[in-house]
Every structure is written in structure tokens, then in C-alpha cells.
Design brief:
Blueprint (H helix, E strand, L loop, with lengths): L22 H6 L5 H5 L2 E4 L6 H9 L3 E5 L8 E4 L7 H7 L2 H6 L1 E4 L9 E4 L3 E2 L5 E2 L5 H11 L9 E4 L22 E3 L4 E3 L17 H6 L1 H12 L50 E5 L7 H10 L6 E5 L4 E5 L3 H11 L3 E2 L2 E2 L1 E4 L19 E3 L3
Parallel strand pairs: 1-2, 1-5, 5-8, 8-9
Antiparallel strand pairs: 2-3, 3-4, 6-7, 9-10, 11-13, 11-16, 12-13, 12-17, 14-15
Helix pairs in contact: 3-4
């Protein structure tokens, strides 16, 4: 597309859903589909070549839902133009800037029922096989919509591409989590794929990594719901075994304290129940470890805490999370973590024995608090 000058702003089109010359014309083809006329709620990806469809949805007074970028803050944003918006204002609402300035988040309990899904593609075949830019967000968004009851197998999926993006794709490349499409719109054609391959039936947790769970908060909420419903929610790289008991070579954990809390009194033993249930113990840190190295390792596993209490002299740290569920998730994600030649000991701080929790306060009354990761 770049070499033939078929690409349009933003350029270059590498590593993104490519915009192309004629994308607005291709978007107009959706008006010829009966499914669009019957649609009330439309989910359209935020990619630039789909801007024309977002505008048509707003002009037709349909409910327009756009996924939040990289799903950082949720699943959908609902575009809400100001009352009496002119065509120019609607046009701005259909852009990425409009998504930021004229939208409200849609929560898991909003009972959204999506009538039509419009996704971007890098390549697509006439049989309905689709290739995105390789990060899996469109596939995951669809699976999440299935999990929250927003779509069904009968919900049509449309993609909009340049004619040169319609290519033969071997079915062997497809996996069970890949989203297929029912209609392909190009500047010159409207293709009905007749694809009979089932679409994803929900989130396949065994293909979700701990790192992805850390990046996408809404996944954690959906996982909690499905776990309560009795579904297998084992992650791709999650170990099911509980942490091994600490060996005699592992320094016992000290008393966990929040920033600005007064040092614990040394007059009595610390009880296991006194330790906040949202706190994770990390032990067996190498002698020369820096706090920045631990932070980097935690981010790499998608387990960055709200706060970190550093006790490097005692070869340990305490990680403070938003709630007990997040702490438990971090324990799962951090199993087997190495720093240097050491395998770190990771467990909920509350799981340590009462004797272990007798404050190392006398040895280290003022641990370094690192509020941010």
C-alpha cells in the first residue's frame, strides 16, 4: 500500500490498521446492507479507515460504541454528541478526538446489546478469514462482548478495507480465538462471505497471559465473574501450585506498613491477621538487587502494585495492591519469577506464620517506601 501510494494518513501504515485512499467511499457501502438499516447499537473500532462508518452511525442516530484504546480503562465508550449537533460537529465526534472528548464509559453492567460489529483489518479473504495487526485486540474485544452477553453468534461482523487487502488466506492460519467476518466493504465491492466458521464463543483464558491481565483491568473483572460461575479461568502462564514453604535460607518477612504509618510498637508480637490482605510478600531477593530492577520485573509480569515497601537489607519487599483479589492475582502471575540467579519467594503476606511476622521492626524500623511503580 505504501509503495503503490494507496495509503492515506496516518503514514506510514506499518504496525497499524492501514488507512487508505477511498476509505470514506468504502464506508458508504454499509448503507446498502439491510443489517445496517435494522441496527440500533453499533460497535465500531477506533481505526482511521472506519471513521466514515462512525459518522454514518451518528448521522443515523444510532448508538455508537467504540472500544477504549488498548482496553486500558474498560471495554466501550459511548459517543454522545452534544444536543442539536451540526454535521461538522458529528464529523468531529467520529474522529479519534471526538472519541476522547464526546464519550462516556460503558460498564459491564450496562446490558449493552450490540446489533452490528465493524472491525478494521490488515488483510481479509473472501471466505471471511481475517488478519489484524497481530496484537489480538479485535478478537479479544469480541470474546469479551460474548462473555458479557453483548453479542451472539448471529451478530454480523463487517470489515472495511482497500481492494488490495482482499487476499487468499489459508484456513490453517486461523485459530479458535480468531474473529471472522460476514461482510467485506471495499471502494468497489460489497462482499458477502457466507462464512460458516463459528466465531469465538467467549474468552479462552488459557490464551490470556498474566502480563495481559495486568494491562487490561476489565479482564480481571470478567475473570472473577466467570470464576464465580464455575468456569475454568486458568491463565496461559499461571501456575496452580501454592508457593513452597520458605526455606531456612529465606529471610523471614517483616511487618508490613503503609506509607506515613507510625512504626509498629515492639511491645508485642505481630499477628498474621494484622497484615493487610491486599499485601504480597516477595523474598529471596539477590543481595545487590536495586528497587528499580524489581519494579521492572513486576511490570514485565503485569503485576505492578499501587505501592512497594522495600526492605532490601533483608532481601525482601512488600507489594500493596488495590484489593485482595488483585493481590491474589499478582501472586499467581509472579510464581517462578527470577532476579539474577535467585528464584523469588512470592506469597500473600498474610499467609506467613505469626512467628515470621514478629516485626523485623527492631532491625529495620523505617523501610524505604516507594509509592509508585
Amino acid at each position: 500500500m505504501e509503495s503503490q501510494n494507496l495509503a492515506d494518513f496516518p503514514r506510514p501504515v506499518h504496525h497499524r490498521i492501514p488507512n487508505f485512499k477511498g476509505s470514506y467511499l468504502a464506508c458508504q457501502g454499509i448503507k446498502d446492507l439491510d443489517i445496517f438499516a435494522r441496527t440500533q447499537e453499533v460497535k465500531v473500532d477506533p481505526d482511521k479507515p472506519l471513521e466514515g462508518v462512525r459518522l454514518l452511525a451518528l448521522q443515523s442516530q444510532k448508538t455508537l460504541l467504540v472500544p477504549t484504546p488498548r482496553l486500558r480503562t474498560g471495554l466501550f465508550n459511548k459517543i454522545t454528541p452534544p444536543p442539536g449537533a451540526s454535521k461538522d460537529v458529528l464529523r468531529k465526534c467520529a474522529t479519534s478526538q471526538g472519541v476522547r472528548n464526546h464519550s462516556v464509559p460503558v460498564g459491564l453492567d450496562s446490558r449493552v446489546l450490540v446489533d452490528l460489529v465493524v472491525v478494521g483489518s490488515v488483510a481479509v479473504s473472501e471466505k471471511g478469514w481475517r488478519i489484524g495487526k497481530g496484537e489480538g485486540y479485535a478478537d479479544l474485544e469480541y470474546a469479551m462482548m460474548v462473555s458479557m452477553g453483548a453479542v451472539s453468534q448471529g451478530t454480523p461482523v463487517v470489515t472495511i478495507v482497500h481492494d488490495c487487502q482482499v487476499v487468499d488466506i489459508p484456513e490453517a492460519l486461523l485459530e479458535d480465538h480468531d474473529l471472522t467476518v460476514d461482510y467485506i466493504l471495499t471502494p468497489t465491492r460489497v462482499i458477502t462471505t457466507g462464512c460458516a466458521r463459528p466465531k469465538p464463543a467467549g474468552i479462552i483464558w488459557s490464551k490470556i497471559s498474566c502480563e495481559m491481565m495486568g494491562r487490561i483491568p476489565i479482564l480481571r473483572s470478567l475473570r472473577s465473574r466467570e470464576k464465580q460461575a464455575g468456569k475454568d479461568v486458568t491463565l496461559q502462564d499461571e501456575h496452580q501450585h501454592l508457593p513452597e514453604p520458605h526455606s531456612q535460607h529465606t529471610a523471614p518477612p517483616g511487618t508490613v506498613r503503609r506509607p506515613r504509618d507510625p512504626p509498629p510498637q515492639e511491645s508485642g508480637p505481630v499477628q498474621a491477621g494484622d497484615v493487610p490482605s491486599n499485601t504480597v510478600y516477595v523474598g529471596n531477593l539477590p543481595r545487590d538487587t536495586r528497587v528499580s530492577e524489581l519494579k521492572r520485573a513486576l511490570r514485565g509480569r503485569g503485576a505492578a502494585p499501587l505501592r512497594l515497601t522495600w526492605q532490601g537489607l533483608q532481601h525482601r519487599a512488600f507489594l500493596h495492591y488495590q484489593d485482595p483479589a488483585a493481590a491474589q492475582q499478582a501472586v499467581s502471575c509472579l510464581q517462578g519469577l527470577h532476579l539474577g540467579a535467585n528464584t523469588l519467594s512470592v506469597a500473600l503476606a498474610r499467609q506467613q506464620t505469626a512467628s515470621d511476622l514478629v516485626g523485623s521492626c527492631a532491625r529495620e524500623p523505617h523501610p524505604d517506601h516507594c509509592p509508585t511503580i
